[in-house]
Specification:
Layout: E1 7-10, H1 14-26, E2 33-36, H2 39-47, E3 63-66, H3 75-84, E4 93-97, H4 102-110, E5 115-118, H5 123-140
Parallel strand pairs: 1-2, 1-3, 3-4, 4-5
Length: about 150
């Protein structure tokens, strides 16, 4: 296992990926960022399957930033499966989405999201939101320990 605090960024929009990476770098959040462009890629990474078969699943990301509107498997279904799997059920997941749907907010929390952040349209507001998110989840928050008995 390694000591790097990895972020799993689950986002299908290349512009939003670039913007998020730019903001993280701007605020000196130098964590390794793994990108998943849809729900299947995210679950493969977290569960060590598919393209990530053989990955040590004891090395879970410090944080998952999860968009909701994803191809193949949407963000809420990803969250549902993460919470159902004993290896990932404690994984910190922050929904970071442009969705303004009240139902998405309620469903996200009902499925166990740790936080729900609507992406601000304004760059300065988005930058500040990501800065605060990074400070809290990567520096202040104490993550759960690896699940015992995970392969």
């Amino acid at each position: 296992m390694n000591n790097f605090k990895t972020i799993l960024l689950v986002e299908d929009n290349p512009d939003d990926i670039a913007l998020t990476l730019r903001v993280l770098k701007k605020h000196n959040i130098a964590n390794v960022v793994v990108e998943a462009h849809d729900g299947v890629e995210a679950l493969d990474y977290l569960c060590g399957t598919g393209a990530h078969a053989g990955r040590d699943v004891r090395d879970q990301p410090q944080l998952v930033l999860l968009d909701l509107e994803l191809p193949r498997i949407d963000g809420l279904e990803v969250l549902r499966r993460v919470r159902r799997d004993p290896r990932t059920r404690l994984q910190p997941v922050v929904i970071l989405t442009s969705s303004n749907e009240q139902k998405d907010l309620v469903d996200g929390y009902a499925l166990g999201a740790n936080s729900y952040i609507r992406k601000p349209v304004d760059f300065a507001e988005f930058s500040e939101a990501v800065r605060q998110l990074g400070l809290y989840w990567l520096l202040v928050n104490q993550p759960p320990p690896p699940i015992e008995g995970a392969p």
